[in-house]
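Q: Sequence in, structure out?
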Amino acid sequence: MTQQPTAILDLGTNTFHLLVVHGAKILADVKRPVRIGKGGINDGFINNEAVERAIGCLHDYRSLGFDYGVGRGVALGTSAFRNARNGEEIAKILERESGIPINIISGEQESALIYEGIRFGMNLGNEKSLMVDIGGGSVEFIIGDNSGILWKESFETGGQRLIELFQDSDPISAGSVKAVEQHLEKTLKGLAAPMASFMPSVLIGSSGSFDTLSEMHCIRKGIDYVPGPETPLDFPTMENLLTELISTDRAQRMQMPGMIELRVDMIVVASILIRFICRSYTFKNLRVSGYSLKEGLWSMLLQNQMDKFPSIRISPLS
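A: Exactly. Output:
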C-alpha cells in the first residue's frame, strides 16, 4: 500500500466527486456540480462550456489533493464520457490540464464498482437486494447479496437525460411526468426478467438522490443525520417525499429541510424513477448506501484487487 494518500475522482455526468483516502481513512470527500453533460447529453456531445467547468474543477481538486499530500490519483469517467462522440478527446484534454489520468469506464465496470462500494459500506447479508444508483447519464441496477453479483446492467436513462428530454416546466407538468414514466417503461424493459428470476426483497438506494431523501427523512423524524456508509429511510416517508418533490417548483423544494442545491434540479426526475421502480416491484425492506462508485474503487485498492479492473490506470502525481 502506498505511503501517501490517494485521490479518487468520480467524474459523473452532473457531479464531479473527489475522495482523498490514506489507507482505510477518508481525508476528504468533496462534490461539485460540474454538469459536464448539460446541453449535450442526448446529442452525444460534451460542449465547450462544460469542458471549461470541468477544467476549473479538476484544477481545484488537484490543488486540494496536494494540500493533503496526495501521491497518486485516478479518475473515472462515466456515462457522459463513454457516450459522447468527443468523449475520449475531452478526457485527454482534462488529463493534460489536470495531470490526473482519466479512465473512461464501461457501464459494466461502473455497475461492478458500485456494487463493491455498497458491499464495502454495509453487510448485504443473504437476502437478495436490488441496488439502484441514479446518475445524470445512466442508472445502474445490480441484483446481488453479500456473496456476489447475480445480475447487473447500466441503462443510459439518467437524470440529466430525462430533464433535457421531458422537464419543460417548473413544477414539472402531469403530462411530462406521464411521458417520463412511459419512457422508463420502454428503456427499463430489461429489468423485468432478472427481477422475476431473482426476486430481490430489499431495495438499496445508492448515494445521490437517496442521500438527500435519507437526510430529509431524518429531519422529519427527529433523527440525527450522520453521513456515512448507511443512513435511514423508510417506505412511507419516502413515498410522501417523492409526491411532494414531483409536485413542487424549485423554490419550494429548496425550502424543504434537508434539500441541497446540488440535487434540487435532478431530484424531480429521480423521484419519478424511484416511484416507478417501487410501483413496478415489491420490496420488504429499504436501505440507503452512502457508498458508491468511488468507494468501490477504494475498496479494491485496500484489498489489493485492482487486477479485477486491469484497464483502470492509477498514476503518480507530480
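The chain has a mean pLDDT of 96.
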